[in-house]
Design brief:
Layout (H helix, E strand, L loop, with lengths): L1 E2 L3 E7 L11 E7 L13 H5 L14 E8 L5 E14 L1 H5 L18 E12 L4 H16 L6 H9 L2 E2 L15 H9 L10 E4 L6 E5 L12 H9 L1 H12 L3 E6 L2 H14 L8 E3 L16 E6 L12 E5 L4 E3 L13 H13 L2 H4 L14 H19 L7 E5 L5 E4 L1 H8 L5 H8 L1 H10 L3 E2 L3 H16 L3 H19 L8 E2 L21 H17 L10 E2 L15 H4 L2 H15 L3 H14 L3 H13 L6 E3 L1 H16 L9 H9 L2 E5 L3 E4 L13 H25 L17 H11 L5 H30 L30 H6 L9 H26 L4 H31 L19 E11 L18 E8 L2 E8 L9 E6 L3 E7 L10 E9 L3 E8 L4 H15 L8 H4 L17 H20 L2 E3 L15 H7 E3 L10 H4 L5 H10 L2 H6 L17 E4 L15 E4 L4 H8 L9 E5 L6 E5 L4 H7 L12 H18 L2 H6 L5 H9 L4 H4 L5 H9 L14 E2 L24 H5 ...
Parallel strand pairs: 10-12, 10-13, 11-12, 20-21, 35-39, 36-40, 37-38, 37-39
Antiparallel strand pairs: 1-7, 2-3, 2-6, 4-5, 5-6, 8-9, 9-18, 13-14, 15-16, 17-19, 21-22, 23-24, 23-29, 24-25, 25-26, 27-28, 28-29, 30-31, 32-33, 34-35, 41-42, 41-47, 42-43, 43-44, 45-46, 46-47
Length: 1909
């Protein structure tokens, strides 16, 4: 029972203290004047009566009522009901004659009213919240005052203050209370009497009023009236849910409204829906304006403020503002509200909308039900609250299973195990629930609802019995609504226990008329009278017997356990029974010592342990193997168990929400192994590296759970003393939970004697104390590292920020063998030990303090603990030292042995092997996606040598553990080195950091360093890589340093034997300087374009600043006169190097002296650049027109970029058209160059003279062409066409794209006009798809074969489109040639084309690498290989180069010369010029010719290999640009289309592609011949050989290798004379080069042949050993696409036969014949025989014939290089007949049988020597004949041992065998009967045996064969 009202206060306006616009209130009277002892008077009431401030107003306002809430220091809430009315006062301003500040400040002239009204408030302060009762009471008092009723006011107030009502609790009987008059009047006259504990209390204040107060049945359930429904109507569902979540997650919430009562209601509603949680932060439903600074408090709050103050709330940055009047909720940007977890949020929203708007569900019905009205507001209010109760039941279901009771006596102490709760609910990641469980409200919930013995309410019932129902009904809205309505009914009944009697009769002033205005002010009351009433009532209460209302305590039901609640996320499914089975089997194998089986299962187990069920299963299984808290294992068992534990802990979060770490904690102190010297090592020393051990929350939860177990057993023992119960687990005995036990004990507590109570308290306390000691030990086990000299404490944890040295996953020798690899900081070890010990002691002390204080451990015990802890830690450190010492002596851990790679001669290790893991990248073959076991990840070592980066190791998957995985690439080809952060490898090893290394040989290494590699070692590794990748100078590259162990020195100071070469190079440079000195030297007068790539050598710097301005005519100087006689001999090297052989082959001039040279030759070899003074990047000897003197050349050269003027590089032997190359023109020279010669010029300037000289130069080239001289420039199209039309092949005419079309494709013209001119050439073997290029057309082009009228229907522009072809086409950059005006009379024509720049090429290559070798296996959704390839645009660039090349070939073939004048003349120009020569000249398609081409066009003409390959530090910034690789790819595309035209194989191209970036050879180093001479490397290949093993030139290496093996040879090579190739260049015809995608993990790249050969010999022996041991021998062999080298494993037929021959020769001990000789011999014999035996038919061997038609040759009849399936049947086996199909039309038996390979014994049915007569005029010869029944043949050989079959007689063609007669030339002295004849369909064979018997035997045998057939 409690008072209805504690205080009654009258508050009025303080007229004395008014100042400015704001007045003040003052308490006029308060009753009682003395504070109640149990309820002190709240301060500051006057502020809350007028929250907006005390003000006088000119008009009387209506009376108002609201309830404010004040919270006192004890967190008790006081409800202040304020009834305010207005009384008139005289205007104080008028009296003083001062202007008023109250109303209109800015207009003081306004007339002030004489009458003002002041507010007065009647305030009722109560600890109960009965708003309506308060309203009625205060209204009554006001009515008594206004109506001047006869009742004394003191009586009314006295009655009010003495009214006693029950707080809660309905009637114990269910009868309704009597509603008689006496009941209604009871309150006044018998205030002390209890009304039979009914919940309705009828009161009267003695003024003819009566009202029933209904108190709620359960005090714990909030009373909300209609406020919740009202709140939802004001703000809407989503907004209120948002506020609800914000309040639960402790955000600041501010309500705004212009109504005070609504603010109070909204705040009350928010608290009501939070039930069963209670809000424990600042709660002020109405905040007075003067206290607005409270809003800046840092703590959460729920506050209401009048909208009047809205502007002052704008600056609040972290407050959620809910505007009740506007219906909005504003969440600031910086605030993130965690919402309810889905699907709960959705279900809640749906349920609330069904309550608020039931019509929504039936809104779409065709026949809606008659009316679906929402419930009344009061009922709706309860329904919404029911929804939130239903929501909390789901959120907190099973919470009682996670309560730990750690003390029962004297008071229950309960802790909630948050991690277990979240883990069981699978909501560990849920932000909302995490915050709620961490919040204050939930802490209050646990302390309030945790105790197991207490009164229970609706929520307890819901959690205990309704959870299952809620789960089942979840999907059914109707059932959910039914449940909610049931709950709502209970809530309503709680608030309104007796709705029938809820009637009021209160006299009010407003019953019939308008309220009467008070005539006089509220009277002062007689304080004595009121006090008498109060004293009288108090005395009566004291004498009345005490009301003891029995508290209905009972045991709180626990509800269904969490385990029964099905995991919503379906984690159960993920861990199938099969996985658990694998885990169980593996553990069984380990304990049964079947280690091999366990090893096989290990990877699967480690994968399975990602799932929760498998981890739980592991802990359960391991528990079974622990006997009496100990399990001793051997080393390997221990290792496996520790690995599994580590893997299990690795995926545990620091919360340990699934209790895995908790379950493992007892196990890590149980599993151990014996070390030497009686020392035991426990598993805990190997599983310390996990975050969970350093988290205080984990240890607390573990401690409390153990304490609970012990307390439970403590009381169970008490209960079961002398009682023999059934063993646990039997169904008969229900096991009591700790909470149930505690509940029972709490019930018994009052019945126990003092001694018993004391005894139990002590027992519990000592239990907690002993557990604290136990945990101090446990914590020291897991926190102290095995090697305490290392600071292995985890970083960023509570243990102290000590540097970490990894000690995880370490089992045996671990700390031992690894310790050496770290630098021990000697001298500081003692200090460090104490650091480790101190931080562990501090951590354990903090833990002990916290748990002991919470569990009520006495201070004496706590002090004892603090003294024990340092001793415990110290003892443990000593034990660990011994363990550490012994573990060092263990044999090292069984990690895979590090395999050492084979090195090349001269290659040396820079860094020895570091253990790493090679992680899988995006290539599918290695990762097991294709169905084979995954080869990657692999464990092994990475080696850095002076040449390569090599990984060698074995796959971690045990199924392929025997394979060796090798991945390597030259260090010079490294393009990217980056760090990998998220290393995801399914290995149990701990890796520190990862690196990604990408190479332009299309290799990628994702490596992760093993734990044993110190991090500083990894840094050293990185530095070494960078140093080797970018040496200071080119002499630091491997090609120079090979075989030199000494430090790299840039300048060779050693005396060189090859003196002449050195002399030459020195003299060349000196003479160059002298020559420059002789000329007129001007510094900086005209500087030529800078030569970008200067070498680092200082000597060049001066020369670069000097430029030649003018030079005397030197055309008369010949080679011999220029160079001193001592150097003439070495100049022959220059001659050869400058490819003069090729020039002579082409007839472009000789090197004889100028006197003897024929003047008729149009070209000459000029020595103008012999000292590299004209152009540094050109070769020393150049082909120029005969008529142009050297001085002109020097002047012309300045017009071109880099001084690269036009020179001839090839001449068409048939049309005599020449191909020239040059750089693009300088911008200033362009316009002058194309200026019409007739245009008037101001005077002969230098520019004009230069452009004239250029014209002369071009004219000289044109004049050299025979077609020009014949026609004297009048040659028209028709006459030219007829000359060569006859050679065109009819089949090709239909297929050839014409020049006009080609030209348009190249220049980007859209209209596809058929050309009118073509000549026979060979077109590619794939038909074009006719795609058009997308380049913009250029209108001004003079295209010679463009027939304009039919192109676009417009008139012909004769000026631009002349029908006569030009003699010289200049192909130049479109951008360079802008503004040039064409002249129709010149014989040359410019073709402006748009080529890609190097930046495009670089980006394209990067994308190509990423497409072919993706770095990770999970790319973005749409980025498939083909999409990435398309994005890279690599194929588009190839198409562009090929297009231009084919156009040039076509022009040259038709008799026009072409000059390629693109960019600087050393990139695209070189590509196009080289491709044109390959397509036009068969010589360049041979191995020798291709070498010459590369030496001439790429090396001599200065392609910048060093710069483009970023070979040195100076070039590092330019990045890698694969110009040469792109050229090789183009050659590869042509090779694919014309497989029979190239002598070299595809492998040859790959070999060059690999080695041009590898820096193994010096061939592709440096940027020009000049640099090579200067460094003295140009001619050294011809000098002495210091080290025969080290090859300096790639060509020499290829020659050597080619002699040994046919790897570079193309067996299909069968060229036609003078063949011109014209490949298709459409993108659809191009293929991705397999060089980019193939990989051989078994041996690494196959381009370093010594390494591959070395490897081949090893496996042969191993295989033989293996075959002896294994039983059945299988002939089959598995070939892996990414592992095996297909060339070796599945060689093509010819290679296989050549290998077999070689092997047989070795077996027979014969000297082996070179493969080339063998091959040539085979070809010739085959040709001879085919001519002899089948003159009328085609040879069955396509390979040997060279007279096939074009059509047939281009059908792609070629051997794939890999040789997987040859597309033709190679008939090289000598047993195959050379005859074609016989006349009968059925296939010959020889072709049927040729596919079989049988052993000799089967094939030879009968054999011996017979004489056979040769063909016409040929003699008789003895031959070894073999009759083969299987193949149905008679074969003959030269001798018995011979393998080459001389001929075959097919028995199918034999008509008869009969005795013959000796003919002329037959063998003498032989019986006539020994002769017999063999008649076939084609001829008769005369044969003679040694004697008649033998002859008869042969005849019979052949006859039997014939009859069998």
């Amino acid at each position: 029972m409690t008072r209805l009202a504690d205080y009654f206060v009258v508050v009025g306006y303080d007229l004395d203290k008014r100042g400015g616009s704001e007045g003040q209130g003052q308490i006029l009277q308060r009753f009682p004047e003395k504070d109640w002892e149990d309820n002190p008077f709240p301060q500051g009431i006057e502020l809350f009566c007028q929250p907006s401030g005390w003000q006088l107003v000119p008009e009387r306002k209506p009376a108002s009522f609201f309830v404010a809430v004040l919270t006192d220091i004890n967190s008790e809430r006081h409800y202040c009901a304020c009834f305010t009315f207005w009384e008139s006062v005289e205007n104080p301003q008028l009296q003083k004659g001062e202007p008023s500040e109250a109303d209109e400040d800015d207009s003081p002239d306004v007339l002030q009213p004489a009458q003002l009204y002041a507010p007065k408030s009647l305030v009722l302060v109560s600890s109960l919240d009965h708003t309506e009762v308060f309203r009625n009471c205060l209204s009554l008092i006001y009515t008594v005052h206004v109506d001047s009723l006869t009742v004394p006011m003191e009586t009314v107030i006295g009655n009010l203050l003495t009214c006693i009502i029950p707080i809660a609790g309905g009637s114990q009987t269910n009868d309704p209370p009597l509603c008689s008059l006496t009941d209604w009047l009871l309150g006044c006259f018998q205030p002390g009497q209890d009304d039979r504990e009914e919940s309705s209390r009828t009161i009267t204040l003695g003024a003819g009023d009566r009202q029933v107060i209904q108190t709620p049945i359960h005090d714990s359930l909030p009373v909300s009236g209609c406020s919740v429904a009202q709140l939802f109507r004001q703000l809407g569902i989503v907004n209120v849910l948002c506020l609800f979540c914000a309040a639960l997650t402790e955000h600041k919430i501010l309500f705004l409204s212009s109504s005070y009562q609504r603010l109070t209601d909204a705040c009350r509603a928010l608290l009501a829906i939070m039930f069963p949680l209670t809000y424990s932060f600042t709660y002020i439903p109405i905040l007075p304006g003067k206290l607005l600074e409270v809003l800046c408090t840092p703590t959460p709050f729920i506050i209401g403020v009048n909208s009047y103050f809205r502007s002052e709330t704008q600056e609040l940055l972290d407050v959620i503002i809910a505007d009740l009047d506007g219906g909005t909720v504003t969440v600031p940007e910086c605030v993130h509200i965690s919402l309810l977890p889905e699907p709960l949020l959705h279900h809640t929203q749906t349920a609330i909308s069904m309550v608020l708007d039931p019509e929504l569900e039936v809104a779409d019905y065709a026949f809606p039900p008659p009316s679906v009205q929402p419930s009344t507001l009061k009922i709706q209010d309860k329904e919404i609250r029911a929804v939130f109760l239903w929501l909390f039941a789901q959120l907190f279901q099973g919470y009682r299973w996670c309560l730990h009771i750690i003390r029962i006596y004297p008071e229950p102490v309960i802790r909630f195990h948050k991690a277990a709760f979240l883990g069981q609910r699978a909501l560990a990641e849920d932000d909302f629930l995490m915050k709620v469980l961490d919040g204050m409200a939930f802490a209050g919930f646990v302390s309030e609802r945790g105790p197991p013995y207490r009164p229970i309410d609706l929520f307890d019932d819901l959690i205990a019995s309704q959870v299952e129902r809620i789960r089942q009904e979840m999907g059914n809205p109707q059932k959910v609504m039914k449940h909610i309505k049931e709950l709502a009914e209970q809530l309503f009944k709680n608030e309104n226990p007796y709705p029938a009697v809820a009637m009021h009769r209160v006299q009010r002033t407003s019953e019939n008329t308008q309220p009467r205005l008070p005539q006089n002010s509220f009277p002062l009351l007689d304080e004595v009278g009121v006090q008498l009433f109060i004293d009288h009532a108090t005395a009566k209460l004291k004498t009345a017997p005490p009301v003891v209302k029995a508290e209905l305590k009972c045991m709180v039901p626990t509800g269904p356990p969490l385990a029964d609640i099905v995991d919503r996320n379906g984690n159960v499914l993920a861990n199938s029974a099969r996985r658990l089975e694998v885990v169980r089997n593996c553990i069984t194998y380990i304990f049964d010592n079947k280690m091999l089986e366990a090893k096989k299962l290990m990877p699967a187990v480690l994968r399975a342990l990602k799932g929760r069920a498998a981890r739980v299963c592991l802990t359960q299984e391991l528990n079974l193997h622990v006997l009496q808290n100990r399990a001793v294992l051997d080393d390997q068992q221990f290792d496996y168990i520790v690995r599994m534990m580590n893997c299990t802990l690795q995926d545990c979060s620091h919360m340990d929400e699934h209790g895995i770490a908790a379950a493992l904690l007892p196990l890590v102190t149980a599993f151990c192994r014996k070390l030497g010297g009686g020392i035991t090592q426990f598993a805990y020393s190997c599983v310390q590296e996990h975050m969970v051990w350093t988290k205080m929350q984990f240890w607390e939860a573990m401690f409390y759970s153990d304490v609970q177990k012990h307390i439970r057993t403590l009381y169970l023992e008490n209960d079961e003393e002398g009682d023999i119960s059934n063993p646990e687990g039997e169904s008969g005995h229900k096991q009591l939970s700790a909470l149930e036990l505690a509940s029972e004990q709490s019930r018994l507590w009052p019945t126990l004697s003092k001694e018993q109570q004391q005894e139990r308290v002590q027992k519990e306390e000592s239990t907690v104390f002993s557990q604290a000691i136990h945990y101090a030990n446990r914590m020291s086990y897991l926190l102290l590292p095995l090697d305490t000299s290392k600071n292995r404490l985890l970083r960023n944890t509570g243990l102290g920020d000590v540097e970490s040295v990894s000690n995880s996953y370490v089992t045996n020798s671990i700390a031992g063998s690894m310790a050496e690899s770290y630098d021990t900081e000697s001298g500081f070890e003692d200090a460090e030990v104490s650091d480790v010990a101190n931080s562990v002691v501090r951590f354990i002390n903090r833990f002990v303090d916290k748990v002991c204080n919470e569990s009520g451990v006495t201070n004496e015990h706590l002090k004892a603990l603090h003294t024990m802890i340092p001793d415990i830690v110290q003892m443990h450190i000593e034990t660990l030292d011994a363990v550490h010492r012994e573990s060092k002596r263990l044999p090292p851990i069984q990690k895979p042995k590090l395999l050492r790679p084979t090195l090349l001669p001269g290659e040396e290790f820079v860094m020895d092997g570091m253990r790493v893991h090679l992680i899988a990248d995006g290539r599918e073959e290695t990762t097991g996606v294709m169905g084979v076991p995954p080869l990657l990840p692999a464990e092994g070592a990475i080696f850095l040598t002076s040449y390569r980066l090599i990984f060698k190791g074995t796959p971690t998957d045990p199924l392929v553990g025997e394979q060796v995985v090798t991945r390597s690439f030259p260090i010079a080809s490294l393009t990217k080195e980056s760090k990998i952060s998220n290393i995801n490898i399914p290995v149990d090893q701990l890796v520190q950091e990862g690196m990604q290394l990408r190479s332009c040989t299309f290799q990628l290494m994702n490596i992760a360093f093993d734990e044993e590699v110190a991090s500083d070692l990894a840094e050293v590794f990185k530095k070494h890589i960078n140093k080797l990748r970018f040496p200071q100078h080119v002499q630091g590259t491997f090609a120079f340093t090979v075989g030199q162990t000494a430090n790299l020195v840039v300048e060779h100071k050693t005396k060189d034997k090859n003196q002449s070469i050195k002399t030459l190079s020195k003299n060349l440079v000196k003479t160059a300087k002298r020559t420059i000195g002789r000329q007129y030297v001007t510094r900086k007068k005209y500087s030529p374009p800078t030569w970008e790539n200067r070498s680092n050598l200082q000597s060049e710097m001066d020369e670069d600043e000097i430029s030649v301005s003018e030079e005397p005519d030197q055309s008369s100087l010949t080679l011999s006169s220029t160079i001193r006689s001592s150097d003439r001999q070495t100049m022959s090297n220059v001659v050869e190097r400058a490819c003069c052989r090729d020039y002579q082959r082409l007839g472009l001039g000789t090197l004889s002296s100028s006197l003897t040279r024929s003047k008729n030759e149009p070209f000459r070899i000029s020595t103008v650049n012999r000292m590299y003074t004209v152009c540094r990047s050109y070769p020393g000897l150049l082909i120029v027109p005969q008529s142009i003197p050297d001085s002109t050349i020097q002047r012309i050269s300045r017009c071109y970029r880099q001084n690269r003027f036009p020179v001839v590089c090839w001449r068409n032997p048939r049309t005599k058209a020449v191909l020239l190359r040059s750089a693009g023109l300088h911008a200033k020279g362009v316009v002058g160059f194309f200026k019409s010669p007739n245009a008037p010029s101001a005077g002969p300037s230098q520019a004009d003279s230069t452009s004239l000289e250029q014209e002369k130069y071009l004219q000289a080239i044109i004049s050299s062409m025979p077609s020009y001289s014949e026609a004297s420039g009048r040659n028209t199209l028709s006459s030219f066409t007829s000359t060569h039309m006859s050679t065109s092949d009819s089949s090709d005419k239909l297929r050839q794209p014409k020049i006009g079309a080609l030209m348009k494709q190249v220049m980007g013209t859209k209209d596809d006009v058929p050309g009118t001119f073509s000549r026979g050439g060979k077109w590619g073997s794939i038909r074009g798809s006719g795609q058009q290029s997308t380049y913009n057309p250029d209108v001004g082009n003079k295209l010679p074969w463009k027939e304009s009228p039919q192109a676009n229907g417009g008139p012909t522009e004769t000026y631009f489109l002349r029908q006569q072809r030009a003699y010289l086409y200049i192909i130049g950059d479109k951008s360079q040639l802008k503004g040039g005006k064409q002249d129709s009379f010149q014989q040359w024509e410019v073709v402006p084309i748009e080529m890609f720049d190097l930046r495009q090429l670089k980006n394209s290559f990067k994308k190509l690498m990423k497409a072919c070798v993706p770095s990770s296996s999970n790319p973005e959704q749409n980025m498939t290989f083909h999409r990435c390839l398309e994005d890279s645009e690599w194929m588009t660039l190839l198409n562009r180069v090929l297009q231009v090349s084919v156009l040039v070939v076509e022009l040259l073939d038709n008799g026009s010369s072409v000059m390629i004048s693109l960019e600087d003349g050393w990139d695209v120009t070189t590509q196009v010029v080289s491709l044109v020569q390959i397509l036009s000249d068969p010589y360049y398609r041979t191995i020798d010719g291709f070498r010459l081409l590369v030496e001439k066009e790429w090396l001599s003409f200065g392609h910048r290999f060093s710069h483009r390959g970023a070979q040195t530090l100076a070039n590092q910034s330019s990045g890698f640009t694969p110009v040469f690789l792109q050229f090789l790819d183009c050659v590869h595309q042509i090779h694919l289309q014309f497989p029979m035209e190239f002598e070299f194989s595809q492998y040859y191209l790959k070999f060059l592609a690999y080695h041009y970036v590898s820096n193994r050879f010096r061939t592709f180093l440096l940027d020009s011949d000049y640099e090579r001479i200067e460094l003295g490397v140009l001619y050294e290949e011809k000098g002495e050989r210091r080290n025969p093993l080290v090859c300096k030139s790639v060509w020499e290496y290829i020659d050597r290798l080619n002699k040994k093996t046919p790897i570079f040879y193309n067996y299909m090579f069968s060229p036609e004379e003078e063949e011109v190739l014209k490949p298709y260049s459409y993108i659809s015809n191009l293929k991705v080069w397999d060089f980019y995608t193939e990989e051989t993990l078994s041996e690494g790249p196959s381009f370093d042949w010594e390494l591959v050969r070395g490897r081949q010999e090893e496996p042969a022996d191993e295989a033989s050993d293996r075959q002896e041991t294994t039983a059945p021998k299988s002939q089959r062999r598995i070939v892996w696409p990414c592992y095996d080298s297909l060339i070796k494993v599945v060689p093509d037929a010819i290679t296989k036969l050549l290998q077999d021959l070689q092997n047989l020769e070795n077996e027979l001990g014969q000297p082996t014949e070179k493969w080339k000789d063998m091959w040539d011999k085979t070809k010739t014999t085959q040709r001879v025989e085919s001519r002899l035996e089948s003159r009328n038919s085609f040879s069955s061997s396509l390979l040997m014939s060279s007279n096939l038609s074009h059509q047939r040759r281009s059908q792609g009849v070629y051997l794939q290089e890999s040789g997987v399936g040859s597309t033709i049947n190679l008939a090289l086996d000598c047993e195959v007949s050379a005859t074609s199909t016989p006349a009968t039309g059925r296939p010959s038996t020889s072709t049927l049988y040729s596919q079989f390979q049988s052993t000799e014994s089967e094939n030879r049915s009968f054999e011996g020597i017979l004489y056979k007569r040769g063909a016409l005029l040929k003699p008789w010869k003895p031959r070894w004949f073999v009759l083969d029944k299987t193949k149905h043949q008679l074969r003959y050989y030269d001798a018995r041992q011979d393998k080459d079959c001389k001929g075959v007689i097919d028995l199918a063609e034999v008509e008869s065998v009969f005795p013959g007669t000796p003919t002329m030339g037959a063998p003498k002295n032989i019986d006539e009967k020994a002769f017999f004849d063999l008649k076939t369909t084609k001829r008769v064979y005369n044969i003679c045996a040694q004697d008649s018997t033998n002859a008869q035997l042969w005849m019979d045998s052949i006859q039997s064969c014939l009859s069998d057939a």
